[in-house]
Amino acid sequence: MESLRREWNKLKGMGTSQLDPAVKERKLELLRGMKDDLVGILDFLQRQGIYLDDHYATVRSLVANL
User: Fold this and answer.
1) How would residue 20 be classed by pLDDT, with cut points 50, 70 and 90?
2) Where are the domains of the chain?
3) pTM of structure
4) Which distant-in-sequence residues (6+ apart) come within 8 Å of 59 by Cβ?
5) What single DSSP character describes residue 4?
């Protein structure tokens, strides 16, 4: 997740080049990667008997559409 976050921050700081379709596509790829990591962590915790749905239900709902 940390490497994805660093790359996201680089892309975020690109200013007007954010309008570039390739940059937009890369941002979506990064978001999907971060989503997969986050959902993986939450699923792992749930398998361990730790339920965080009350805190992360909205987050899961938002990222489900990526």
Assistant:
1) confident
2) 2-63
3) 0.65
4) 38
5) H
